[in-house]
Amino acid sequence: SAADLDVGSASIRLQGACARDLCVPRALLRQLDAGGLPEIPDADDELKRRLLCAAHDAGLDDPAAITPQMLRHTCIAHLVRQGLRFSDLELVVGSLSADALAGYAGLAPAGERRTLGEITRLMPALTEMEAGQGEAG
Question: What are phi and psi of 77, to 5 degrees?
Fold first, then answer.
Protein backbone atom coordinates (compact mmCIF):
# COMPACT_ATOMS: atom_id res chain seq x y z
CA SER A 1 0.00 0.00 0.00
CA ALA A 2 1.01 3.64 -0.24
CA ALA A 3 1.63 3.60 3.52
CA ASP A 4 4.53 1.21 2.87
CA LEU A 5 6.37 3.81 0.75
CA ASP A 6 8.95 6.00 2.47
CA VAL A 7 10.22 8.56 -0.03
CA GLY A 8 12.44 10.16 2.63
CA SER A 9 14.51 7.02 3.18
CA ALA A 10 14.01 5.75 -0.40
CA SER A 11 12.52 2.46 0.74
CA ILE A 12 9.43 0.34 0.59
CA ARG A 13 8.32 -1.80 3.53
CA LEU A 14 7.80 -5.46 2.67
CA GLN A 15 5.31 -7.18 4.96
CA GLY A 16 5.09 -10.82 5.96
CA ALA A 17 7.16 -13.37 7.83
CA CYS A 18 10.43 -11.76 6.71
CA ALA A 19 9.30 -8.12 6.96
CA ARG A 20 12.03 -5.71 5.91
CA ASP A 21 12.71 -2.40 4.19
CA LEU A 22 13.80 -2.61 0.56
CA CYS A 23 15.99 0.14 -0.86
CA VAL A 24 14.45 1.62 -4.03
CA PRO A 25 15.76 4.36 -6.36
CA ARG A 26 14.27 7.70 -5.33
CA ALA A 27 13.15 8.40 -8.91
CA LEU A 28 11.13 5.17 -8.95
CA LEU A 29 9.68 5.89 -5.50
CA ARG A 30 8.56 9.34 -6.63
CA GLN A 31 6.78 7.74 -9.59
CA LEU A 32 5.13 5.16 -7.34
CA ASP A 33 4.14 7.83 -4.83
CA ALA A 34 2.62 10.00 -7.56
CA GLY A 35 0.87 7.24 -9.48
CA GLY A 36 0.11 4.73 -6.77
CA LEU A 37 1.56 1.27 -6.39
CA PRO A 38 1.09 -1.02 -9.36
CA GLU A 39 -0.89 -4.15 -8.72
CA ILE A 40 1.55 -6.81 -7.60
CA PRO A 41 0.81 -10.20 -9.16
CA ASP A 42 -0.47 -12.68 -6.61
CA ALA A 43 0.38 -15.69 -8.74
CA ASP A 44 3.91 -16.85 -9.51
CA ASP A 45 2.96 -17.52 -13.13
CA GLU A 46 1.67 -13.96 -13.59
CA LEU A 47 4.91 -12.50 -12.19
CA LYS A 48 6.94 -14.70 -14.56
CA ARG A 49 4.72 -13.62 -17.45
CA ARG A 50 5.23 -9.92 -16.68
CA LEU A 51 9.00 -10.36 -16.37
CA LEU A 52 9.11 -12.23 -19.67
CA CYS A 53 7.17 -9.45 -21.39
CA ALA A 54 9.41 -6.74 -19.91
CA ALA A 55 12.60 -8.63 -20.84
CA HIS A 56 11.34 -9.25 -24.37
CA ASP A 57 10.25 -5.62 -24.81
CA ALA A 58 13.66 -4.47 -23.55
CA GLY A 59 15.32 -6.49 -26.30
CA LEU A 60 17.27 -8.83 -24.03
CA ASP A 61 18.95 -11.77 -25.79
CA ASP A 62 17.29 -14.50 -23.69
CA PRO A 63 14.13 -13.06 -22.13
CA ALA A 64 13.02 -16.47 -20.83
CA ALA A 65 16.08 -16.53 -18.56
CA ILE A 66 14.76 -13.54 -16.59
CA THR A 67 12.91 -15.16 -13.71
CA PRO A 68 12.10 -13.94 -10.20
CA GLN A 69 14.64 -16.45 -8.85
CA MET A 70 17.37 -15.21 -11.20
CA LEU A 71 16.73 -11.58 -10.24
CA ARG A 72 16.84 -12.49 -6.54
CA HIS A 73 20.09 -14.41 -7.02
CA THR A 74 21.63 -11.48 -8.92
CA CYS A 75 20.72 -9.09 -6.11
CA ILE A 76 22.07 -11.40 -3.41
CA ALA A 77 25.30 -11.96 -5.34
CA HIS A 78 25.73 -8.18 -5.73
CA LEU A 79 25.49 -7.73 -1.96
CA VAL A 80 27.70 -10.69 -1.05
CA ARG A 81 30.45 -9.67 -3.51
CA GLN A 82 30.76 -6.40 -1.60
CA GLY A 83 31.56 -8.33 1.57
CA LEU A 84 28.21 -7.84 3.30
CA ARG A 85 27.90 -9.70 6.58
CA PHE A 86 25.48 -12.61 6.29
CA SER A 87 23.72 -11.45 9.46
CA ASP A 88 22.89 -8.21 7.59
CA LEU A 89 22.13 -9.98 4.31
CA GLU A 90 18.96 -11.52 5.68
CA LEU A 91 17.74 -8.07 6.76
CA VAL A 92 17.63 -7.16 3.07
CA VAL A 93 16.73 -10.38 1.24
CA GLY A 94 14.85 -12.35 3.88
CA SER A 95 15.63 -15.76 5.27
CA LEU A 96 18.07 -17.98 3.40
CA SER A 97 18.72 -21.67 4.01
CA ALA A 98 22.06 -22.87 5.33
CA ASP A 99 22.74 -24.46 1.93
CA ALA A 100 22.02 -21.19 0.12
CA LEU A 101 24.31 -19.26 2.49
CA ALA A 102 27.05 -21.82 1.98
CA GLY A 103 26.71 -21.39 -1.78
CA TYR A 104 26.94 -17.60 -1.55
CA ALA A 105 29.94 -17.74 0.78
CA GLY A 106 32.15 -18.53 -2.21
CA LEU A 107 31.24 -15.15 -3.75
CA ALA A 108 32.38 -13.13 -0.73
CA PRO A 109 35.75 -11.42 -0.99
CA ALA A 110 38.46 -12.25 1.51
CA GLY A 111 38.84 -9.91 4.45
CA GLU A 112 36.66 -8.05 6.88
CA ARG A 113 32.91 -8.15 6.44
CA ARG A 114 30.96 -4.96 5.89
CA THR A 115 27.67 -3.66 7.31
CA LEU A 116 24.66 -2.49 5.31
CA GLY A 117 25.79 1.11 5.77
CA GLU A 118 29.15 0.34 4.14
CA ILE A 119 27.88 -1.17 0.89
CA THR A 120 25.90 -0.07 -2.14
CA ARG A 121 22.51 -1.70 -1.78
CA LEU A 122 21.23 -0.79 -5.24
CA MET A 123 22.41 -2.65 -8.30
CA PRO A 124 24.68 -0.55 -10.57
CA ALA A 125 22.01 -0.04 -13.24
CA LEU A 126 19.57 1.28 -10.62
CA THR A 127 22.26 3.56 -9.20
CA GLU A 128 22.87 4.90 -12.72
CA MET A 129 19.13 5.39 -13.20
CA GLU A 130 19.02 7.40 -9.98
CA ALA A 131 22.00 9.53 -11.01
CA GLY A 132 20.44 10.22 -14.40
CA GLN A 133 17.14 11.24 -12.81
CA GLY A 134 18.96 13.54 -10.41
CA GLU A 135 20.59 15.38 -13.29
CA ALA A 136 17.36 15.63 -15.24
CA GLY A 137 15.10 16.46 -12.32
Answer: -60, -40
What's the pLDDT at 136?
44
What average pLDDT does this structure show over 100-110? 96
Phi (first) and psi of residue 85, to 5 degrees: -65, 140
pTM reported for the whole predicted model? 0.71
The rounded distance, in Å, linking the Cα atoms of 12 and 121 is 13
Q: Which of 92, 60, 55 is nearest to 76 (CA)?
A: 92
3-state secondary structure 42-93: CCHHHHHHHHHHHHHHCCCCCHHHCCHHHHHHHHHHHHHHCCECHHHHHHHH
pLDDT at 135: 46
Q: What's the pLDDT score for residue 16?
A: 72
- pLDDT at residue 131 in the model: 67
| Residue 62 C-beta-side C-alpha neighbours within 13 Å | 4
Residue 29's identity, in one-letter code, is L
Secondary structure of residue 116 in the 3-state scheme: helix
List % helix, strand, coil for the chain (3-state, nearest 5): 55, 10, 35
Q: How many CB atoms lie within 10 A of CB 18?
A: 12
